[in-house]
Amino acid sequence: MTRYFIQRPIAVIMFFIALIGLSVLAWLNRPVSLLPDIDVPEMAIRVDYANASPEAIENNILKPMRESLATMQGLSDLQSTASNENGLLRLRFNYGQRMDLAFVEVNEKIDRLTDQFPADMSRPRVIRVNYTDIPIAKVQLIPTDAANMIESSRLAENVIKKRIEQIEGISLVDLNGTVDEQIKIIPDLKALQRTGLELEAISQAIQSANQELGGVEVKDGQYQYYMRMAGRLNNAEDIASIPVRINEDKYIPIRQLAEVKTAEEKVSGFHFFNQNRGIVMNIHKQPQAVMTDLMPEIEKSIKQFKKDYPTLDIAITQDQSIFLKAGINNLQGSLLFGGLFAFGVLFLFMGSFRLPVIMGISLPLSLILSFLFFEIFGLSINIISLSGLALGLGMLIDNAIIVLENISRKRMEGLNLIDSCVAGVAEVQGALISSVLTTLAVFVPLIFLSGVSGVLFFDQAVSVGIILTVSLGVSFVLLPLLYRLFFKNKKDFKKEDSRFFKSIIQGFEKSHHWSFRNKRLSFFMILLILPMGIWSFWNMEQKGLPKITRTDAVVKINWNEPIDVIENANRSQELLDNLNKQLEFSETDAGIPQYLLSLENAELQESLIYLQFQSDNAKAEQLTFLQNQVKKSYQKASFEMENAKNAFDMLFASEEPYFRVQWQDPNLKNANPESVKPALENFPCDNFQAGPSLEEESSMILTIKQKELLHYGISPEQIINQLERVLGNYKISELKQFAIITPVVLETDEKAFADLLKTAKVKNNEGKSYALGNFVDYDWGNRLKKITADVSGTYFSVNLEQETVQKNPEKLTEEINQWASDNSLIQKISGRYFTEQENLKELAFILLISVVLLYFILSAQFESFWQPLIVIFTLPFGIMGAMIVLWLGGSSINIMSAIGMVVMLGIMVNDAILKVDTMNRNLKALEKRDKESVYEAIFSAGKIRLKPILMTSITSLLALSPVLLSGGLGAELQKPLVLAVMGGLTIGTFTALYFVPLVYFQVRRFLGV
């Protein structure tokens, strides 16, 4: 087959040109995303109900929804949390569930429950959880005049938002911090008292003046008209002029009874940028959009907005495309340095400029051809698939080096050009195919991992498989053809090795003879790697992601006091005032945000602050200072800080506690702190954190005096209505002008609660007025801040940290079960601990399958049952070598280092397979197989494969080394991977050169073959 392609160069070249054209089209068509488009089997339902308590939201809204949704097919878990003014219900389904159909079903069930929900509550929002919903950037809009928030909000919602959404590839612009206009009626209670009027008089006057005819038609001959009321209310001045009747002959305008003004509506949250109140836009992209193309378009639009709207200061923050750019830069760096070092190594070992040029053509060509298969398999260009390509590049270089070196060796043996190309490919063809299959045998089973890990490994495994398969095609078809074309006019082919390699082979010959003369010492030196690697493993930290130098952080402060959102914002800004100039900028969301896609169960007393510092040292110093300030000034406040979440955190971090104990008390009627505490007094572990269902807050308990109501002839509804008018924003009516609706609300001035009860009046059936305070008692007390529930109903919970659980998890579980039994509780234990245990068992089983597949493939290649074991036994040495270098490099066991080990094992296997294959070929050529002849065959194989093994190893090591010397996000993410590959590859090279021949020789002697 190789001879056929070599003898038809024009046809092959045209074929590859056609493939390149198709690949370029596929590359231009492929979506570029931060992450793969993962159909995450999760959904959330947000409930927003102003002025509602957790009990009201739980009983009236969340409980009916849970009962209705619990019967859904494929539902694996259902959790809800009710807090002040909002609630959140999260649904988790089994992987493989059709989430588009589940989304429709959830909405249908909510629509059926609409009649049971409170009439003044907006419809619950159903949100599909998707990791691609991470905003690609945030746009900050800060009015230059703080008084222009209403106009700025309208501009943001009606103009800027729509113009950004018109950019091709943008799916949604999610806003927070906007505010609407409303007309406030602030009654003068003393003026009302002097005129003998009640609050209802103002409300009734406005409602009467704002009447509207509904659907009245008037015919005038052949014409038909729709009638509308003249003199509709249009603004605050119109309302202030409305007359209120005092008696039969006297009227007084509302302006004499109340202050009427246009103002901002009452909000439940604020957004600040650099301590200036403003609006933030979260920009979300469509799954098929190219992120790297979107950001320049967004920046271009922002530049135009700055010119068009000088009343706004506009800035872009938290640009997530930097992670994708880091992945692309890493791939480009791997390709560039891999090519340069491959060029240098080939020249040193082969002494020719032509071979490095062939390599320089084949590498980018293989990469371009890979994108054609991306199109076929429907893969997007994202961080995961790019990492697969980057991992495959090292193996691609190895295949090319092995083929080129073997062709050159055949020419040195005296074959003509075409026969050298054919024989050189044929000799290593089986070994290279086996090495690719063994690499895939390690990667492909990982896609069967459950959860998001399996979905992510699919992209990586397929991309590795693609580039390795393409590299085989290029190595077997294009490389020999290029070799013939480059060397066909070269008559004086150099038939000896370069001086550099001659010096290396002399050292190898001496060391190889020494290792066979001192077999026991050689085995001891190699086996010493195993305990050193195990020791390194136990002395390294284990974490999900490598340590990354981050100059940003997120601080979450809950004041744990019944303050309003204005006080919350003031406290947050005062804290930021104390930070020094090392803070580049800050973003603050105080209270409950307006984001449509928000999955946070936020509170009015909570602030989320994003901080960007100038350096990592400044970050550590300022966060410590900020935490001390909070502890000093606000003893009740809770303070949490963490790195700002990026794409990797969203993928691998989990909000689920490490170990959660939840229980239900069948005898518990009143969910208050005092009724829950007795069960916790004898909890078997002291080091626990109270779950959200055990958090307390101060509250006012209001009691209506029923006897007084009966005595004075006043109904409870009158008391409740009057309390709503006096204490809250009571909506009277609304003004409509085209698409703008302005609510008219009644708002009392901010007095102490006791004074309001004395001042406000309520009338009985006879028209007599009495102070509202005569019919109401109030007291202060604590109540539970949140109500958590699952399918079985409401529950309480505590969380345990990893250090507490890992001491003796089995004993702790038994003690918790006994505690629940002693207190007559229904308990359930869950958390990441159990998930991780299941994942480890699953991973161990899948790796076992990988080793079995590896053995089957090698058995078929070598036609032997014992030779594959030699290759497999080299793998632990590579892993231990990776552990040692990771420990020496100050790294940890994490996702990236684990991926590096998988890559390293693929490269190690290649070297060992080539060595065993060559030893087998040499032994087949022997007429007699005595001890000396077998040794000579093994030694000859070592010399034959020394050059490709060293070239592939040195090229890979040199190509990876720049990552260790560079900085930045991309380098820090790749450093553990690089250390793992370099450590394993270094040990793997020595095992291929010395351990494999020793074991091969000894096993043959033991088996007598």
List keywords for this structure.
1009 residues, alpha+beta, Multidrug efflux transporter AcrB transmembrane fold, Multidrug efflux transporter AcrB TolC docking domain, DN and DC subdomains, Alpha-Beta Plaits, 4 domains, nine-stranded antiparallel beta sheet, six-stranded antiparallel beta sheet, elongated
General shape: elongated
- CATH topology term of the largest domain: Multidrug efflux transporter AcrB transmembrane fold
Mean pLDDT: 81
User: Got a strand count?
Assistant: 31
CATH architecture group name of the largest domain: Up-down Bundle
| Alpha-beta content class | alpha+beta
Calculate the terminal CA-CA distance, rounded to whole Å: 34 Å
Question: Strand count, sense and closure of the main sheet?
Answer: 9 strands, antiparallel
Number of helices: 32
Percent strand equals: 15-25%
**CATH class categorisation of the largest domain:** Mainly Alpha
The CATH homologous superfamily name of the largest domain equals Multidrug efflux transporter AcrB transmembrane domain
Q: How many discrete domains? A: 4
Low-pLDDT regions: none
Gyration radius, in Å: 37 Å
Helix content: 40-55%
Kindly describe this structure:
It is a single chain. By secondary structure, the chain is of the alpha+beta class. The chain folds into four domains: 2-33 and 324-488 and 497-544 and 837-1007, Multidrug efflux transporter AcrB transmembrane fold, CATH 1.20.1640; 181-211 and 225-264 and 699-784, Multidrug efflux transporter AcrB TolC docking domain, DN and DC subdomains (2-Layer Sandwich), CATH 3.30.2090; 552-642, 2-Layer Sandwich (Alpha-Beta Plaits), CATH 3.30.70.100; 659-695 and 785-830, Alpha-Beta Plaits. Helices cover 54% and strands 18% of the residues. The protein contains 32 helices and 31 strands. The strands form eight sheets. Strands 1, 2, 3, 4, 21, 22, 29, 30 and 31 form a nine-stranded antiparallel sheet that branches. The protein has a six-stranded antiparallel sheet with strand order 14-13-18-19-17-20, with helices on one face. Strands 6-15-5-16 form a four-stranded antiparallel sheet, covered by helices on one side. Strand 13 and strand 14 form a beta hairpin. The two termini are 34 Å apart. The model has no long low-confidence stretch (mean pLDDT 81).
